[in-house]
Specification:
Number of helices: 10
Shape: globular
Strand order of the largest sheet: 2-1-5-6
Distance between the termini: 19 Å
Radius of gyration: 17 Å
Order of helices and strands: EHHEEHHEHHHHHEEH
Length: about 210
């Protein structure tokens, strides 16, 4: 029996379109015999721990923030996802490291979703240990173990490796999907991913 094929997703917690694909990914994983790997991508790696306002983030880029946020809310509503009134962006590096820890505990998918909610719905600073420990506890992971993983930077090398892979493959936008040498860039609908699975003869799961 051969191992399931891998759908790799380059992603960062602070990019809304990575959040918007979570429903499609959950459905693909449920319906097809496919493994999913989330690869951490450094979107705004220089963001300080205290964060930046959205005005600071997009300074000089001629972006109407209110209009953009209204559009994102509309997209989220169409996908059945909650979306809050976020005013800040934060550094996602520690969240990515704790995400690797959660994956090692078999709770990666739950952690990714909970972190997206903490950031995009609740507007929390996911660059701080207290918030991340709370996220871990919200999905029934041990808070003290999460704190230890953060303090020891136990998964620093794992995220370094992901970032290196992103550079080597010249990934410059998220989400990016890599499947059997095929690359898709941007938030893909479930139907697009489904066609990709069908074209590669990936078996549907039986229930």
């Amino acid at each position: 029996m051969t191992d399931p094929k891998l759908l790799e997703i380059f992603s960062d917690y602070i990019w809304p379109w990575c959040y918007f694909i979570t429903g499609s990914i959950e459905r693909i994983q449920k319906e097809f015999e496919i493994d999913i790997r989330w690869t951490a991508f450094p979107l705004h790696r220089d963001t300080p721990e205290q964060g930046k306002t959205l005005e600071e983030l997009f300074k000089g880029r001629n972006i109407d923030i209110d209009q953009t946020m209204a559009h994102l809310k509309q997209v989220a509503r169409g996908l059945g996802l909650p979306f809050g009134d976020r005013k800040m962006t934060y550094n996602s590096r520690l969240a990515q490291e704790l995400g690797k820890w959660a994956e090692s505990k078999g709770k990666g998918h739950e952690f990714h979703n909970a972190t997206f909610i903490a950031y995009f719905v609740d507007g929390k600073n996911i660059g701080t240990a207290d918030v991340l420990i709370g996220v871990a506890e919200s999905i029934k992971l041990n808070g003290k173990d999460a704190e230890k993983a953060i303090q020891e930077r136990a998964y620093k090398e794992a995220v370094d490796s992901d970032w290196k892979r992103s550079y080597e493959l010249k990934v410059n936008a998220v989400p990016t999907f890599l499947f059997d040498s095929q690359v898709l860039v941007g938030a893909q609908k479930y139907e697009t991913l489904e066609r990709l699975m069908v074209s590669d003869n990936i078996k549907r799961r039986t229930f």
